[in-house]
Amino acid sequence: MTVRPGGLKLTHAERVALLEERLGVTFSRKDLALAALCHKSWINEHPREALSDNERLEFLGDAVVDLAVGQRLMEQMPGAHEGELSRARASLVNEEGLGKVAESLGLGELILLGKGEDRSGGRTRPGLLSDALEAVLGALYTGDGLPAVLALVDRLFAEPLAQVVAGRTGGDFKSLLQEWAQERLKVTPRYQVTGETGPEHAKRFEVEVLLGDAVHARAEGRNKKEAEQAAAQKTYLALSRAQPPGE
């Protein structure tokens, strides 16, 4: 049992199980998942535990997250040049960006920290949190491979990735989807309203987007244009992940 002022009182097995629950993954290597949560300050205070700190996994995870996010950007920003892709990736996987993702998972309370690091606010420090998240991704990659990492990145980075892509296109996912669908599928997206709810002054519209005869997504908005953009965004991001450039 581990007791720390700012962390959770958990056994090692419970700590890993809670990490898996929050990530929505199952680690093949539970030992690596635990190591990813071990800060060197805790290891120094518990030499008899015979555990490793997370620095080696952090080193690997740094490269892994660059690769995974880079792949998704390549898929979702066709035609973007190398410099633009590099800037987009840097905006997502910097200390601040990774720290926010780690914070959203409550990763700080799962990390095994030494007393001094804990008292000095280590659990909320962006640098420490981003390092831990990289270590977690490194552990997942080592045990389960890149597909598992990409699936996790899709969940953890869905919103910031969409914001980056929207920023490049001015938020016009309808145009982006139309270009993609005409080039890849030789069809033009069609939109149709499937429902309206609410009073006249606060209506909500539901729209579906079709490629050929297949419905790919439905979304709501305060007006038809907003709903169409939301449906186009869902469709474009799903299709660009499922069919990367060159396939």
Strand content: 5-15%
Uncertain stretches:
1-5
Class by SSE composition: mainly alpha
Order of helix and strand elements from N to C terminus: HHHHHHHHHHHEEEH
Please give the order of strands in the largest beta sheet.
1-2-3
CATH secondary-structure class of the largest domain: Mainly Alpha
Fold-level CATH name of the largest domain: Ribonuclease iii, N-terminal Endonuclease Domain, Chain A
Q: Count helical runs.
A: 12
How would you sum up the major sheet? 3 strands, antiparallel
| Molecular shape | elongated
Rg over CA atoms = 21 Å
Q: CATH superfamily membership of the largest domain, which one? A: Ribonuclease III domain
Query: Percent of residues in helical segments?
Result: 55-70%
Descriptive key words:
247 residues, mainly alpha, Double Stranded RNA Binding Domain, 2 domains, 12 helices, 10% strand
Write up this protein.
The chain has 247 residues and is mainly alpha-helical. The protein folds into two domains: 12-166, Ribonuclease iii, N-terminal Endonuclease Domain, Chain A (Orthogonal Bundle); 172-242, Double Stranded RNA Binding Domain, CATH 3.30.160.20. It has helices at residues 12-23, 30-36, 40-45, 55-76, 82-92, 95-104, 115-119, 126-144, 146-156, 158-169, 173-184, 224-242, and strands at 190-197, 204-211, 214-221. A three-stranded antiparallel beta sheet has the order 1-2-3, covered by helices on one side. Helix 4 crosses helix 5 and helix 8 (126-144) runs antiparallel to helix 9. The longest helix has 22 residues, at 55-76. The model is unreliable at 1-5 (pLDDT under 50).
